[in-house]
Every structure is written in structure tokens, then in C-alpha cells.
Amino acid sequence: MAVNNGLTDFDISSFAVIPNGTGGTNLFGGGSDGGVFLSTNNGASWTDVNSGLMNTSIKALAVIGTNLFAGTNGSGIFLSSDNGTKLERGEYWFGDYLDPFSCCKRHEYFCGEL
Question: Can you name the residues that pair with 103 across neighbouring β-strands?
């Protein structure tokens, strides 16, 4: 069974999971060229969720609670608090070449240079 229906980028290098509030999960994948993708059916189909994303080269995904962080290759870190409907860069933007690779429950950011 194929699990890439809807993916426009098959080079997915990062994943994140957020509970959807109804007992299921939202699975996110970050692509090297296609941005962030969302599956609400365990990977059977995917939809890109790149609204607001300035750069679709995703290097890392991280989760704190229900917040999704996407580290890009050259445009900093973006946050979605609405399951990827809108990704925004804000006060947590550290610079062009930093990626989140892990987050902890105290809302601290851990970043690495590219």
C-alpha cells in the first residue's frame, strides 16, 4: 500500500505528531523542497500546509504541546498553533541558519547551526 498520496516531495526527513483532540493524531512531515505536509489518517494521504512559510526547505520539526515548530534551511523557525493552517515567524526567530532539533516542556528552544 502506498503511503505517499498527496506528497509532492518524497524527501521527507523529519516527522512530528500532535494529538488531534478526538483520540487520533495529526502526523506532520517536513520535506527538503515541498515544505510541511499533514496526514490525519496515519499517512494514507497528505496535504501541504505551507501557508505563511517563506521557505519550503524544512530541516527539522519539533512539538511543544499542540504547537508545531518548523526549522527551515535559510529562513529561520516558524510556528503553527493551528495544525499547520498558518505558519508564522515571530519572536523566536533566531536568524537565517538555525533549526530547532528538540524542544522541552518548559518552552525552551534548542537550536543548531547549519
Answer: 109
**What cell was used for 72?**
527551515
DSSP 31-90: ETTTEEEEESSTTSB-EE--TT-S---EEEEEEETTEEEEEESSS-EEEESSTTS--B--
Residue 5 located in a structural domain: no
pLDDT in tens, 20-50: 888 889 999 998 888 999 999 988 999 999 9
Domain assignment present for residue 6? The answer is no
Contact 35, 61 (CB under 8 A): no
User: Structure pTM?
Assistant: 0.79
pLDDT tens, residue by residue, 88-102: 886 555 555 544 444
Query: Would residue 91 count as lying in a domain?
Result: yes
Least Cα distance to 69 among 59, 58, 80 occurs for: 80
Q: CB 47: neighbour CB atoms within 10 A? A: 14
